[in-house]
Amino acid sequence: MNQQRTVGVGLISVGWMGKLHARAYSSVPYVYPELGIKPRLVVAADTEQSRVDYAISTLGFERGTLDYHEVLADPEVDVVSICAPNFLHAEMAIAAAEAGKHFWIEKPAGRSLAETQSIEQAVARNGVETSVGFNYRHAPAIERARQLVGDGRLGEITNVRASFLAGYAADPRAALSWRFNRELAGSGVLADLFSHAVDLCSHVVGSIQSISAATNVMIPARPKLSMGQGTHFDLIEGGEMGEVENEDYAAALVRFSPEGLAQRAIGTIEASRVAIGPQCGYRLEIYGTEGSVKWDYERLNELEVVLGRNNEEQGFTTVIGSPGHGEYSRFQPGPGNAMGFDDLKIIEAKKFLLAVCGGEKTNSTIADAVAAAALVEAAEKSAATGDWQQAGKPAQGQKMQY
Ligand SMILES: NC(=O)c1ccc[n+]([C@@H]2O[C@H](COP(=O)([O-])OP(=O)(O)OC[C@H]3O[C@@H](n4cnc5c(N)ncnc54)[C@H](O)[C@@H]3O)[C@@H](O)[C@H]2O)c1
């Protein structure tokens, strides 16, 4: 693609993710000039006037509105970012699809499997492109791990350990944002972090077939925070308390689908928002008969690797980010220069816009969100019943494995 194409961007919600989406769009022409894609920041919506003002004065949007419907009705908008709290996602995404707007939606796309499937149906009806905020997929070290798995360098996958342990709500003074309310967020850490872990496992290793899970609420009440104020990292002294309605912690045992090199693989997935110590301790470890890899988001640019059973040097070698890994070379010319979270969002924006403009489709889609939602729902059911739950369809001729 070398023709210039201007893409009109509408942003819905100017919170943490909204700002990142805006920055990511603006960075695409700098990082990927050869694509000729020029995002134009047309209009941003938020119910907080100060955030609309910020979108215009600082992020560079031409217009602002308190009503997201105006973003969807705007003929100059080609693509929409949906960065609202979870309870608004389905309503906004379905309206975007019906308005013929391609959309990039933050995870979790819906609060439940049914809601996520209703978005998928609207997308299919209207033929729009989608992307989902599964940003950790784009880390160059993760792409390298995926390549090693895909090329068979780890041999048959024996087991996978994914643990997404965060401390943002470890302090009982941590604000009761919309994330802790079932109506507004759906599930708790299952939707927030576990869904990321599920997506990473699927992206790098393969889909998950069945699951057994347990969950807990560790801190049952927190000080309230109004919508559109502060962030979920805020600590509030005193103030009115409200109930935490969804889980703080989840642990699961999973079986991968009997396909490819993960035929017999078993995994553990753990997620917490109340861990003391790890702040964003998002780890993926993959063990195979011929080698293993380990990644930790807190050390985004490093991948620990061991290849072969008979190495003189036993144990893991730390490999640092380098131009051969994923999209690293688009950001830094030589190895060892650090990339950050925002860069992953730029890669996500590029993949979305490229798909919208008729280029290669390497974007995550609403189908990936449905797959993650199916796992989250199966985990919730398993936690409630104590039984293993099926999370995917068995391959033809295969029996479900528990
Ligand atoms: N991909 C990731 O790693 C990642 C990280 C953080 C958050 N998220 C997801 O992003 C989404 C947003 O999270 P956040 O942390 O940016 O939230 P936030 O609380 O920082 O921002 C939410 C914004 O939505 C606005 N809003 C509320 N109602 C609205 C309405 N009717 N119309 C327009 N705007 C409205 C609020 O005023 C606020 O500005 C969530 O779904 C969350 O799960 C994803």
From TrEMBL:
Residues 143-293 form the GFO/IDH/MocA-like oxidoreductase domain. Keywords: NAD, Oxidoreductase. It holds the Pfam family GFO_IDH_MocA. SUPFAM superfamilies: Glyceraldehyde-3-phosphate dehydrogenase-like, C-terminal domain, NAD(P)-binding Rossmann-fold domains. One of its GO terms (molecular function) is oxidoreductase activity. Residues 8-134 form the Gfo/Idh/MocA-like oxidoreductase N-terminal domain. InterPro entries: Gfo/Idh/MocA-like_OxRdtase_N, Gfo/Idh/MocA_oxidrdct_glycsds, GFO_IDH_MocA-like_dom, NAD(P)-bd_dom_sf. Signal peptide: none annotated. This is Gfo/Idh/MocA family oxidoreductase. It comes from Glutamicibacter halophytocola.
